Each structure stands twice: as structure tokens, then as C-alpha cells.
Amino acid sequence: MWARADVRHRWRSLVALGLLAGVTAGLAFAASAGARRTSTALDRLRARTNASDAVVFTSQVGDILPDWTRLRARPEIETLARWALVFGEIGGDPGGVLFASVDGTWTGDVDRPLVVKGRMFDPKASDELVIDENTERAGIAHLGDVVPFHAYGPTQQENGGPPTGPRTSLRVVGVVRNVAQFVFVTDGQAILSPGYLARYGAGAEVLENAYIQLRGGAADVAELQRHVNTDVAPGTPLLDEHAVARRVTTTLDVESTALLLLAAVVVLAGVVLVGQALGRSAAVIGDDAPALRAIGMTRAQLTGAAVRAHLPAAGMAAVVALVTAFLASAWFPLGLGARIDPVRGMHADWFVLGLGEVALAALALGGTALVAWVACRSRALRVGSIRPGAFAWVRRTAPVAIGLGTTMAFHRGSGRRRVPTGPALVGAVFGVLGVVATMTINHGLTDALGHPERAGVAWDAALRPVDANLAHLGPLIDRARTDHDVAAVAVADRVAVDVAGVGVPALTVRPSRGGNPPIQLVTIAGRAPQRADEAAVGPATAQQLHVGIGDTIVVGRPPQRVRIVGKALFPSEVHSAFDEGAWLTPQTLDAVAPPSTAGVELERLVVVRFRATVDVGAATRRLSKRIDPAIASGEGRQVPVELSNLRNVRRLPSLLAGFLALLAVAALGHVLATSVRRRRREFAVLRALGISGRGVRLILFAQGSAVAATGILLGVPLGLAVGRTGWQAVADQVPLRYVSPFELLAVAAVVPVAIAAANVLAIWPGRRAAKLQPSEVLRSE
To answer: What is the distance between the alpha carbons of residues 769 and 780, in angstroms, rounded to a whole number?
Structure first.
């Protein structure tokens, strides 16, 4: 009967081991597959929608109805898809803008949206439009809404006044997903059917541009830029969609890395926790190895027997891992990756599953063979002893209970009294490391989100004046300066200029009296331009032009030669990334874009920086209302998409830290409980020698505290290094002005929390050890 009971217990243990190993491996597989799906989400959306490669903004240089004939004939161009901006009042609100497909190529063949709700518009309908998910998410419009639209007339951009163009009611027939909503028009996009322009285009204000699909993909963008400059208009801005994809790929890379780390944490948990159970199960054969060796079995035969005994558990783990991975795949990707992914749901990534199954078999059966081989060694097991050094010093100098507990934290013992102290120490180090690294990265992220100037945000609000003539801006600037919330005021000009055949947004800031310090753009290397022959450029622009600090470039028409003295970041703008542009002095900008030629392409803003304690949004609304007659529109702080998207990943590092902390708690709790169970004879002897129950509990408290202290001593410096390295990588990729993150109070809190957690975990094992009856334990031994 006892033999049958032992067999049943053995089979239950193997089944439990197979289930635990399978679920653990399946979660790791799913996280790894989720990382792969996250990293390819944008590429798969591009393929699904047949996305374009570049956007040509002829409207930015005043070419409202461009001739595309020469550009369309260029050999690098696969498809030129015309689209237009249509301006007017939407629902009675002035300043509205809608996107429209001119001939149906855009939204039909190129950048074909993925419909997530409703349907796509009828290309011949003049009263239908679709909105992207950002528009619906912001609550601006929803499926089924009817939107009144009154278009401006063809010449109203210069004359202003109430709309004089066609009036119509537009019905939202679908909600769509496209690449533009993530890398171009991130604040929402409503797209008109081609039928609208066919019917009303002649009487409306329409600015035409083009999406370009290249035969060579991103490789031909530089050549396209040169041909746009010669075939359309000099200095025409070009948006490289592969380059600005960084607005989301930075976040996707962080999410993908976090999921890979999550998979690694799950694997580590499996090795630490499941590996302990597997190790104990595989080592059972070592208890009978001397007798079996005596009757003729070899060490290899004993190891093979242990491996064969665990084959059912390994097979069950493989099946459970596949099922778990398939079911858990519905949870991934997370965050931004989930929003971009064109096909969400359960998936089987056979590349990951195949490699994972091989690795699972190797770890399970290889680990079983290794443990059994070591357990069946022919030499007699040596009784563990305390090595001289730190352990011996602690035993000699500390109170008996503390010395014994500290020694037990590092001394594994041998034979059946062997305790897995190593996994507890590893778990403690990785737990503290993960928490500290997460807090460090989160501090860097919080600092960047709280200080958007790290990403080139140089002012808090921008006011677009009704009269942009510099000579007439004095009263507007004076009214803004006298506001008690305002710290500084300046005038910022932006214009597209030709730089070596590349359309580059050029900016200058004209300081006004008052304001300390004055408003300036953000430099990340070198210094700001101070003379007429100096400039600073964005990192992406420097790379595109193959120049660096100290080089000379020719800017604008008439050409002006300037020397690059720094690298700078620029306020976020829809037509270019925030690391693209040229910062010129006011004298240089006036020379390359004189007022006589600056028309629709020149953008002039009165920019404001508020005092540090002011609510930016509320202050912007109040200031705009106060000086309303003098401004056409006002907008608050524009945070780059690259930075704001990082908000989506804040929970992933915390999730990783939580897993690692849970791993540390589980490993330490397991080793404390195992110490009481396997060292019950030693505890009984100690009780017989006069150690009180309180002393026994103190031994367990000392053991737990020693493990926690090891985690702190190694985990805190390693966590700081890992966190800073991780944040440096994120800052370089965005890019951001790097500020070394360090949250002193949070890191300092790790020490008492870790020690307290270790002592809490030791309470229950300590009580068990204190209740042992020495006579009963020693009699059974």
C-alpha cells in the first residue's frame, strides 16, 4: 500500500511540475512573440495599407496648384497620389481643416486606410467622410455624426472674413486606421471623399500636396528631395515618412525591449522556482545511488533512469506551453503597439514556439540529467563546513543567533539537508536591481515629461497675430508682457528654405525687452548662433546634409553662407520632426526670406514662456481671451509625439519590477521554509542546547535579513547603472537632452522596505521552527 501511495505521490508531483513548467514557459513564449509583433507593428500596418514613403508640401512654399508632370515622370517614383487641404468652418468653428483625396489614388491605391468601424466612403459621394481613431478618441466626432461644413472661398486665406465657399453637411461613415495618424497627423484627421472636390473644389480654398510612393523605398528619399526642389519649387519641404516613423518606433522599441525583459524575467522565475522543484525531483535518485551502484548500475544508467522518469513531465510541459502561449498571445502587444497592430487577437508565432520548445526540452531534460549525474557521484558526500573568512568572522563576533542565521543565508549544506540558498540570493539581487532600475528610468521619463524643453519645447504658448507685420506687433507684445503669469515674450519666425537642394524649416527667435532668461531654442551640442554667419541645425538635418559643427552650409535664395556652431532641437511641427531644422539669426532669416517675398510660406508667432508655477493650459486660455482682438489663434505647449508616446510605456518597467520583486519574495520565502524543513535536526539540537524559541526565530530573521542585505549591496549599484544606461539609450534614440536620472528618496526607501519584507517573510518559518519538539525530532532522526 505504501508503495502505491508513493507512486501516486510521485505521479502527482510530476504532473504538477509539468503544468507549472508549461505555464511558465508559455507565458515566456507569449511575451517573446509579443515583442516580435510589437517591433513589426508599424511595418505590418504599412504593408496592409500600402503606405507611401514621403509627403511633398508644396503649399508651404505658396505653390497652391502645383504641376506634378515632371516629378511624376521621375524613375524613382512608383506612384504620386494627390491630396488637398480644405479650409473652412466645421460646426460653426472657424479655422477647421479637412483632408481630401484629389483623384482617389490616395486612400484608394496608396495609403488605403484600414476600416475599424463602419465603412469606407463612396469615392463618388460629395457628402461623406471618414475619421481616424485619434479623432474619435478625442471625442471630436463619431461614427454616424453629421458635420456642418462651410468652406472658405479660393482667395480667403489672404482676405479673411466669414466663409464664402460652398456649404454642405458631411456624414461620418467610417472610422479608419492609417499610418498618418501615428507619424503625421497625430491630433486627428478627417478625410473627404474625392467626390467632394469634384463637386465643390472650384469654389473652395484648396491647397494641394502629394504623397509619394517610391520604387526603392526609403533609399530614394534623398534623390526625391533633389527632384522636388528642381521639378516643383525650390525649398519645398519633404517629409520622409520612414524618418519620422521614429515618432512611434522609439516607443515600440521600448515596448518590445520591455516585453523581452518580461520574458526573461518569467524564464528566470521558472529557473529559480520551477528549477528548484525539478532539481529536488531529479536528485531523489541520489538517495538510493549507493545501493544501486552496489548491484551493478552505472552512473550513466542512473542518470538515464532519472531522465526517463521525467519524460512525461517534459511532454506535458511542452503541450501546456503551446496552449498557454496561444491563449496568452491575445494580451500582446501592449500600449502603442496594440493600437498600431493591424490584426490583434490570438496568434501562433511558430518561430518563437519552435525555438522555445527546443529550449524547454533542453532545460528540462538537460537540467534533470545534470542534477541526477551530480547526485549519483560515487564519492561519499562531504559534510558541509563553514569556510574561513567573512562567515567565520560573523560567527565569532555576532551573537549566536545572528551568526547562525547569517551563515545559513549562504551555506547550502549537503545531502538531504541541502537548502537552495543560491536562487534566493539571485532572486534578491535581481529583485532590488529591477526595482531600482525601474525607478531610475521612470525618474528620467518623469523629468522629461515635466520638462518638455528636453525635447525642444522652447515656449509654453504661441499666439498667431492677425497682423504679422513686425512694425505692428508692439502693442500685442506689450499686452502679453504685462500679464502677471508671463515670464518672457518673443517673436518666432519659421520659413522653409533651400539648403543644398533640401527644403529645411528655418527658425529664428526675435527677443523682446524683458524676460530673464530670454526665450531661445534648445541646444544639445555646441552653442546658439550669435552672428549673421552662424547657424545651428537639428541632428537629423545634420545627418541628412552630412555636416557637423564647424562645417559651412549655403542657406536660402539669395544664398547665404553660414557656419554650423551647434546642434539644436525645435518646437514640434507637423511638417517636420523636432530634430530637423536650421536655427538662424534674425538678420540671416530676413536676408534669405525678405518680407517682399514672404507670403503664405512665412509663419510668424508671438511666443510666451510662463512662470514656473503657472498652469500652462489655463494661462494660455486666459491670455488668449485677454488679447483676443489681436490674435487669429492661440495654442498651448506642443509636446513632440516622440516624447508624449513614451507615456504609454511607463507601466511596462513597473510591471517588470513587480515581477522581479515577486520573484525575490517567492525565492526568499521558499528558502526560509525549506531551511526549517530540511534543517529541523539542527534546530532541534539548538533547542536541546538551550536556544530559546525567540532565539530560533531570530536565526530565521537574521537569515532573511542577510539575503536582503546581499540584494541591496549588489542590486542598488547595478540597478542604478542599468537604469541610467537604459534611459541614456532612450534619450539618444528620441533624441532628448540627456539629464542623468537619480531618485534619491525612492532608492533610499528600497533599503528599509527590503529588510522589512525579509523579516515579514521569516515570521511564519520562525514560528514553525520555534514549535519544534527536540525530543520528537531527534528520536525520528
So the answer is: 16
